[in-house]
Automatic annotation (TrEMBL):
Keyword Transferase in annotation: yes
Protein name per its UniProtKB record: tRNA/tmRNA (uracil-C(5))-methyltransferase
Function as written in the Swiss-Prot or TrEMBL entry: Dual-specificity methyltransferase that catalyzes the formation of 5-methyluridine at position 54 (m5U54) in all tRNAs, and that of position 341 (m5U341) in tmRNA (transfer-mRNA).
Keyword annotations: Methyltransferase, S-adenosyl-L-methionine, Transferase, tRNA processing
List of catalytic residues: C321, E355
PANTHER family to which the protein is assigned, alphabetical: TRNA/TMRNA (URACIL-C(5))-METHYLTRANSFERASE, TRNA_TMRNA (URACIL-C(5))-METHYLTRANSFERASE
Length: 370
């Protein structure tokens, strides 16, 4: 995709084109009309990264056009990034340019911002970082009121902490999250809130039921949904995400979630009784009333075994970041379930990407075996 200026005035039509393309792709499934959730047309990305280009005594932010990958495109203003990142960019650039200890062999900068006002900046170098760098970085962090992390090959220097603290307004309540450097977080916070509220609205009234959640990440959906269920059994493979999720449950005073560091394939094998796992030795799966499942898989969608597992549940809430793999999975799930609700969340305006949410219910009254 070429690097071209965004055009907020064109956004409504671009979104309408996406919705039309989605409708054409899924025409064979007879899905209900979707609820479309547009993004803010500007300042919607909570994270951004740039190469740093050195031109004699000047340095500047740069990106590269795939059509001309060796030619840096200078970026002085990046309106897709959050307003706080846009405000910080010129101030940070000038501070780095004026400090030889911080600018020397600086290669890349990554920003992670929040709705709550927290900001983390990762400075990445082609050299080993020393005490002189650390002293200069600590002064910069204090001057700009930001968190700074320094990285180079096989080196990570955390000056204070390696996470930001986010606060998301969800359905009239605030939920607190630690978002770790290097860990996955939803890039568009406004759309993220809309996705969580949509899921919560369609899974409300489940206090006597238990929820299984695969790919739970840092507890993004888990924390708000936990109050709608008796218990939640969640799985996640990333160590960083599992650590963050446990901390986020504690921050939000949630005590009815059990999180397992397992892949979806491993959990499927455990639920089918095909393998025993030490990670499950204190959990009796038979004690759970497993009739609802939430899946938010990577772009590859569901593998065959996980898709078969998901089909055993009475209610399926499927969050997808790839309409094409979602279509493939729904072609199979449509044999046993029908689609009650459909939503589209424009997480990435001005691109072809589209996030989707689907609520499926079993076609008969039989509950899945647990």
């Amino acid at each position: 995709m070429s690097i071209t200026p965004i055009q907020p005035e064109a956004y409504p039509q671009l979104l309408a084109d996406k919705v039309s393309d989605f409708a054409s792709l899924f025409a064979d499934l007879g899905l209900p009309a979707p609820k479309v959730h547009p993004s803010p047309a500007e300042h919607y990305r909570m994270r951004a990264e740039f190469r740093i280009w050195h031109d004699n005594d000047e340095l500047y932010y740069a990106m590269f056009d795939p059509a001309q990958p060796k030619i840096p495109v200078r970026i002085d203003y990046f309106p897709t990034a959050s307003a706080s990142i846009c405000r910080l960019m010129p101030v940070l650039r000038q501070a780095l340019q004026n400090n030889e200890h911080l600018r020397h062999r600086l290669f890349q900068i990554e920003f992670l911002s929040t709705l709550s006002g927290d900001m983390m900046v990762t400075l990445i170098y082609h050299r080993k970082l020393d005490d002189t760098w650390q002293a200069a970085a600590e002064g910069l962090a204090q001057d700009l009121n930001i968190t700074i992390i320094g990285r180079s090959r096989k080196q990570k220097l955390v000056l204070s902490r390696d996470y930001v603290e986010e606060c998301l307004p969800i359905a009239g309540r605030e939920y607190h999250y630690r978002q770790y450097e290097g860990g996955f977080t939803q890039p568009n916070a406004h759309i993220n809130c809309a996705m969580i509220e949509w899921a919560l609205a369609h899974l409300a009234g489940s206090e006597s039921r238990d929820l299984v959640e695969l790919y739970c990440g840092n507890g993004n959906f888990t924390a708000p949904l936990a109050g709608a269920f008796r218990r939640v059994l969640a799985t996640e493979i990333s160590k960083t995400s599992v650590k963050a999720a446990r901390e986020n449950f504690a921050l939000n005073h949630i005590d009815n979630v059990e999180i397992l560091r397992m892949s979806s394939e491993e959990f499927t094998a455990a639920l089918n009784g095909e393998r025993e796992f030490r990670r499950l030795e204190n959990i009796n799966l038979a004690d759970y009333t497993l009739d609802t499942i939430l899946v938010d898989p990577p772009r590859a969608g569901l593998d065959d075994a996980t898709r078969a597992l998901v089909a055993r549940f009475k209610r399926i809430l499927y969050i997808s970041c790839n309409p094409h793999t979602l279509h493939r999975d729904l072609q199979q799930l449509h044999k046993t379930h029908h689609c009650e609700q459909l939503a589209m969340f424009d997480q990435f305006p001005y691109t072809e990407h589209l996030e989707c949410g689907v609520l499926l219910t079993e076609r008969d009254e039989l509950c899945p075996s647990s």
